[in-house]
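Exercise 7. Given the encoded structure of a 263-residue chain, write a plausible sequence.
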């Protein structure tokens, strides 16, 4: 089976899964239109992940022998969700924590559905967990969705250490590896973070009052401590180790930023 416009096909599939999922689960729709991009499994940038992240980071062929492509998708959050989290004070908003749980479940559903559609087309696919695929001691991911998303051309890194996509950084990423050969998406040819592009911003740094994010440093342990404080705060919910204040109501939250006055 030949798929004429694979990115459009993947995006339409994801969009219809989101609609069906919300209806079936009677869930709030926390997401805007999904973005999808593809990296070639043989992109030389994958080789750099051992140096940039850790030697334990997996390669596409570790996930699926015979891998040809890595599909990465971004589910951008609705602006009201980011606003609510920004205004919630010290802790993450309850809706932010609930959306984390819903998004984990939705990503699993999207992955299972896409895998089955790819298998119907005569290829193989392997899925990876949406989260908690990291080394608990080093707090380093063995399959870093944001680095995959960068390689696939979904966006560029911000000073908040998140990936800024065409729909901003406020959202979640998912991925799967497939033997289906797909055309790779071109990467942006300029920085989308205002500071990295040479304009003044650091709005994300101002949002972090937990001593984790600084202009020239990111303390992942402090960041994770805050995420666990939120988890304890919402003790009635399953694990919700989230914070996200540095992604909410900043110029790059919902779009490619054009000026620090965007928020
Ligand atoms: S808030 Fe500003 S400095 Fe921070 S990541 Fe976004 S654009 Fe870059
Ligand atoms: S997620 Fe929270 S603690 Fe971590 S850097 Fe962002 S604002 Fe700071």
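Solution.
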């Amino acid at each position: 089976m030949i798929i004429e416009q694979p990115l459009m096909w993947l995006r339409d599939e994801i969009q219809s899964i989101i609609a069906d999922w919300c209806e079936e689960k009677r869930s709030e729709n926390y997401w805007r239109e999904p973005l999808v991009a593809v990296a070639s499994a043989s992109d030389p940038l994958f080789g750099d992940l051992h140096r940039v992240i850790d030697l334990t980071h997996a390669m596409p062929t570790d996930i699926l022998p015979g891998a040809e492509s890595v599909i990465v998708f971004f589910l951008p959050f609705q602006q009201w969700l980011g606003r609510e989290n920004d205004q919630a004070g010290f802790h993450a908003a309850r809706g932010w924590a609930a959306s984390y749980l819903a998004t984990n479940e939705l990503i699993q559903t999207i992955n299972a559905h896409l895998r089955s559609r790819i298998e119907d087309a005569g290829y193989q696919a392997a899925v990876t967990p949406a989260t908690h695929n990291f080394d608990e001691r080093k707090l380093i991911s063995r399959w870093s969705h944001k680095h995959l998303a960068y390689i696939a051309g979904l966006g560029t890194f911000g000073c908040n250490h998140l990936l800024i996509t065409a729909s901003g950084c406020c959202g979640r990423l998912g991925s799967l590896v497939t033997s289906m050969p797909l055309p790779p998406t071109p990467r942006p040819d300029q920085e989308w973070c205002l500071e990295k592009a040479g304009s003044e911003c650091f709005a994300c740094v101002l949002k972090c009052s937990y001593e984790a994010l600084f202009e020239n440093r990111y303390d992942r342990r402090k960041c994770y401590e805050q995420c666990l404080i939120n988890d304890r705060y919402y003790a009635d919910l399953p694990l919700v180790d989230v914070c996200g204040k540095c992604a909410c109501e900043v110029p790059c939250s919902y779009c490619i930023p054009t000026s620090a006055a965007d928020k």
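Remark. The radius of gyration is 18 Å. Students should compare their own answers with the one above.
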